[in-house]
Structures are given as structure tokens and as C-alpha cells.
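Example pasted here:
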Amino acid sequence: MPLTAQGVRHYAVIFLVFGVTGGLTVFLSRLVLNGLLGLDGSLLGGPWSYRLVYLALIPPVYSATLLAVGTLLGKRAFFQRRVVRLWGWALPASLKR
């Protein structure tokens, strides 16, 4: 997309979505670990159960958050393609379209 006013707005929204999604993913993952699963710790300080669940939880939470925030800011199609590309190896062919 050329760098017109519309192009600048497009890229500004894209950067905003990625920025908000990163922070929100960390917040939601910690909320799930501490609130729902009752695991306390940190990625560096352990325990190992916390570390393993945290690392397993980040990719799906990130994808869902990316799609949700992108949809709220009017860029659903753009971020849906990113999520399908990220999870393409695990999705059946009917969902990739």
C-alpha cells in the first residue's frame, strides 16, 4: 500500500494492534495461570510447571488476542490472514480459505 494518508493510517493501526496485543497477551496469560490454574511463579524464577504452561499458553492466547484487537480496530481480514498463516500447519484445508 502506498504511503498516502490512508496508507499511513493503515500502518498506524497495524502497529497499534501488534503493540496492544503483546501487552494484553502477557496480562491474560498471567491471569489464566494465577487466577484459573492457581500457578504462581515467573518464567525465569519457576517453578517448571508454571514455565511449561506459560510457554504453551502464549501462542493460542496471542492469536486470539491479535484477531480480537484487530477486529475491534477494523482490520479483521488482515489479521485473520496472519493467524491462518501462523497456524496453517495445524488447520484443516477447509479452514484455511
In short: The first helix runs from residue 5 to 36. The mean pLDDT is 89.
